[in-house]
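QUALITY CONTROL LOG
STEP: pairwise intake check
CHECKER ROLE: data steward
CRITERIA: each record must contain a sequence immediately followed by its structure tokens, with no blank fields

ENTRY 1 OF 2
RESULT FIELD BELOW
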Amino acid sequence: MFVAALELVDFRSYSLVQIDLEPGVTVLVGRNGQGKTNIAEAIGYLATLGSHRVASDQPLVRRGAERAVVRAAVERLGRRLLLEIEIVPGKSNRARINKSPLPRSREMLGVLRAVVFAPEDLGLVRGDPDSRRGFLDDLMILRTPRLAGVKSDYDRMLKQRNALLKSAAATRGSFDATTLTVWNDHLVQLGSEVLQARLALVSELRAPVAKAYADLAPAGGDTGLDYKASWCDGSPLDRLASRGEIASELRLALERVEREELQRGVTLAGPHRDDLVLLLGDHPAKGYASHGESWSMVLSLRLASFELLRADGDDPVLILDDVFAELDATRRDRLAQMVGGAEQVLVTAAVAEDIPVTLSGSRFTVDSGQVRREF
């Protein structure tokens, strides 16, 4: 799989830019603030319908414009597909494949698959649990796109259940218990499906994460992953083998916390409160990992994601957004060796010398919003 052509209209700093791309390595070099990361971000957005830099769509639309368009020709398994997403802040985005509108933009998920490495990834180690939950959810949806609907339904249900609990708390417990029972059933049904997918994913990630970390930092020691939920006594959930067992445990948790939920007006049990614990030896990486260890861990998570997606049938597009500047020379060379065989690798850098010579290929200069190919 590779992106053969990219067009941006009113996206970030670009009023219009068109770029022809090829398989193999493509390098975008330019000083900070010139627009190279915007190109990487646009391809990542087409794959995930989200940005690796910001939480909302508003910053993606060029100042003064009402909407932005990202359009790409994608070669996959011998077929060329034209993907297009129209980003309209405050409204539903519109997606097309081969110029045919899709009923919902999320139906484009899975057509283009990409793995993005970026400086923001340090949040996977140092940040709050929501960043690690987001990592799992993005990957599970790339692999199984229908789960985007399940996760969306869960998030919508959670807002409505929280509204009921907030109302009950404000009226000191005066509420319709039957209504809460209905929302509990929805939470268990949807939450158990999300949990089952996350648990399976964590299990599949353990071996490739450990291998990638050992390759990047041979003297770095062992790594591990645990999926933990505070509503399940803080213990790992791996022991729950089936969705039925997960659902039963989640329902019991809701019964245990019901009184507290009614007092506080918020849902206290469910996958929205879980965490992916990253381990270095016997210690959590958060709070213990050095800068180099943190980078090795997040790179290992992304490399493991790439391997799982590749095992599903074809190589995802690899995007290394300003990553090499954060690494020492040894890690640069090792990372370059590990990703060089991917079908398409897109690299951005402020300084060309940061990129290992082994990652040679097409090169573009990005300056003041202009993208020029070097020959």
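ENTRY 2 OF 2
RESULT FIELD BELOW
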Amino acid sequence: MQGYVNTVIYRDVAERHDIPNSQALKFTMQMVFNNPARKLSVRKIVDSLNSQQITANREVVSDYLDWLADAYLLHKVELRTDSAAKRRVNPGKFYLNDVGIVRAMRIKHALDQGPLLENLVYLQLRRLGFQMEYVLTPDGSEVDFIAFHPMQNDYKLMQVCFDMSDRTTFEREVTALRDAADALDVKDRYIVTWDNEETLPGDIQVVPAWKFLLNRV
């Protein structure tokens, strides 16, 4: 995995785009490795680069992220909004093209299972032909995916929660999903977990990851 990633960074990005010093590029990629399935702004990456005495600006980092996406190493999910200004100021969420890359390339070996499961769900939705954005409710809560299938003209709202045994987590995820579904008028509402399965009020289907990955929902 490390060899594959290094090949992509040097051959498909650094050499192709004639980047003389790949230090900033590698640091940008490392920021994504350490924040999978989490909002990550270009400004935050630039600030981290500058704190390490690595010169970069927002335009350069934006180009790096676009080129890494063009090389199919990562994918970006943006905020669901009709406002170009809101989309521009709200950070994107980044997903790796293989969950194994996260474990192979992270500086910190420990990682919550939640982001890995969310990355896996993203990849499955992508394989099934869905286009994805994330949703912010009026109170600032987040729904991981609104997924649209252009061939089926079908929308799904989806939360990913590895473990719903914590009551606070449970209430937060369910409330955000219900609020987003009501606001966007989406009927298909899912929470993908590691092994929970039930139907909640409001037609919310809680499904285990294995069933979702076998496309049985």
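INTAKE CHECK: passed for both entries
DESCRIPTIVE NOTE, ENTRY 2: The radius of gyration is 18 Å.
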